[in-house]
Amino acid sequence: MGLSAAIEPGTDRPIAMKLEKEEEEDIRLKEEEEEDDEKEKEEKEKDKKEKKAPSSSAKSIIVTAASVVAGGVGAVALAPVVLGAVGFTSAGIAAGSIAANMMSAAAIANGGGVAAGSLVAVLQSAGAAGLSGAATAAVASAGGAVGWLTSFVSRKVLKDNKDE
Question: Over 90: is that where the pLDDT of 101 sits?
């Protein structure tokens, strides 16, 4: 007794071979669907992580704002220290200091006296009595500008280093 197999119409293949090929195709399609589902899941997780983390532009704005504030506050806090170190003290201009040299040059330029409202007069006033409200605002603005410039330059340097 011999084995017989039904032959697929129009081919020389037995029907069983056709079923095996269909099963292989079904398995391949299922694997592709699973891979697609896995990729889709990974993309959704990545999107969730990106939404939680602040964007680089938001970080940049925060760093810039912090730099400006730190520059302004630092400038106002250090102004009296710097004035004293240069020679503009509460007791007057310190002999032999940078302030004394500035006063001498201003007096020579003005025929023997320091003009009211000149840089030397304004700095001596700030050294003796402290910064006025307007001077505080000006110093804070200058310090904020330096803070911004520092932030700007550091971002450019960091960007250039990343590109290398």
Answer: yes
